[in-house]
Amino acid sequence: MTIASKQYEALTEEKAIALAQSLYPFPEGAELVCREIGDGNLNYVFQIKDPKSGKGLIIKQALPYAKVVGESWPLTLKRATIEANALQKHSEFAPGLVPAVYAMDEELAITVMEDLSHLTIAREGLIQGAAYPKLSEDIGEYLGRTLFHTSDFALHPFEKKRLAVEYSNPELCKITEDLIFTDPFFNNDTNDYEPELQATVEAIWNNGPLKLEAAKLKFSFLTEAEALLHGDLHTGSIFASESETKVIDPEFAFYGPIGFDVGLFLANLIVQSITRSGEERQVIVNHIERTWEVFSTRFSELWDREGIEAYKDTADYKEFILEKIFRDTLGFAGCELIRRTIGLAHVKDLDSIEDKNLRIRLKKKALQTGQTLILKRSELTTISAVSGLLEELKQ
Ligand SMILES: Nc1ncnc2c1ncn2[C@@H]1O[C@H](COP(=O)(O)OP(=O)(O)O)[C@@H](O)[C@H]1O
Ligand SMILES: CSC[C@H]1O[C@H](OP(=O)(O)O)[C@H](O)[C@@H]1O
């Protein structure tokens, strides 16, 4: 559905209600209520609801700047169009795993979508100890399907390159290039960490071999247009329940290295494996293993069944590609672990730990795990080797 376009203006709750009324068949005389519920770093999210019928929808609006910083950090409104289009493109391949998009408007920089508030943001649930039994199956499927179907292994090269142009997202990529791949490895003002981590952080800045590997990973991110990525697949971008999983917020979508999406998700699970113990920790380790198993099985099966690449049946080629994706996955996961601990954008899983000694100890563990994943990514050739590493570093 398209909206009669007008000039960009930031929505208020009243304006969001008026817009929702014009877009959705709410019952006659419904008295709609609206709340701005955005808790992310960049955008506004309005939830509009008819309390009587329970019907509702979400209007997400991009601001011409990053919400977390303010007008001093201008940011393209085009990200809203990228997000709406990526949701729809990914739903072609992973139906049921993303919210339905009801409408979008490029001028207003809005996406009107299904209200998922019957679910919980996975990060919040995981912090409370949720197990989310379907999480790794669903995200493994989502990753296998979206990444295979948007790659050169599935698309005509003209279509793949058309999509790469459509999803050119330089400003949002620059945020990732800075916040994930650069700033945490240098003494940069954007970094944010407790004084107790100073020595550990300086050791990262002074670690030549680590910085060389971080530079290589950044180069992959800058240059390898392998598939249409979600681009920011952390557990705050996933809604979940015992029986459902939905991926939201692909405003960082672009053509990049496949391992980036897989690695970001695994890194955010690894944070949970660091904060949990006993049986609850094992649930997360199982999710880590299962995500890779489901992703690689689905990718491999789609390759065999639907692959169009002339070399697809050449001995060992598929295995070479999957090994490359796995190596990249571990490296990108390592960078995400480091930036979520000492960079600009932290994670609540670690920051909300009240006991300071424990918090610092676990943050050091996250940094150590991140560094090991980056440095040893060529030696860790199986997902069980990664579980083994997590077990070793647990002590
Ligand atoms: N479709 C949705 N249904 C219900 N709540 C949503 C939906 N999309 C976003 N939200 C809420 O808004 C918050 C911020 O959304 P998100 O897309 O992550 O914004 P940002 O791009 O600013 O990070 C989410 O954590 C969630 O609470
Ligand atoms: C100033 S952007 C920082 C950080 O925020 C984004 O996450 P989200 O939109 O989900 O809050 C992204 O991870 C960026 O790196």
Main sheet specs = 5 strands, antiparallel
Give the CATH architecture of the largest domain: Alpha-Beta Complex
Percent range of helical residues: 40-55%
What's the Cα radius of gyration?
A: 21 Å
| Amino-to-carboxy terminus distance | 54 Å
Q: Can you identify the CATH class of the largest domain?
A: Alpha Beta
CATH topology of the largest domain: Aminoglycoside 3'-phosphotransferase, Chain: A, domain 2
- Number of DSSP E strands: 12
Q: Could you give the order of strands across the largest sheet?
A: 1-2-3-7-6
What is the number of helices?
14
Q: Note the run of SSEs as H and E.
A: HEEEEEHEEEHHHHHHEEEEHHHHHH
Query: What is the CATH superfamily of the largest domain?
Result: Aminoglycoside phosphotransferase (APH), C-terminal lobe
Shape annotation: globular
Secondary-structure-based class equals alpha+beta
Share in β-strands: 5-15%
Number of domains: 2
What low-confidence regions span 5 or more consecutive residues with pLDDT below 50? Answer: none
Family: Belongs to the methylthioribose kinase family.
Binding site for substrate: 232, 339
GO molecular function: S-methyl-5-thioribose kinase activity
Domain Aminoglycoside phosphotransferase: 34-271
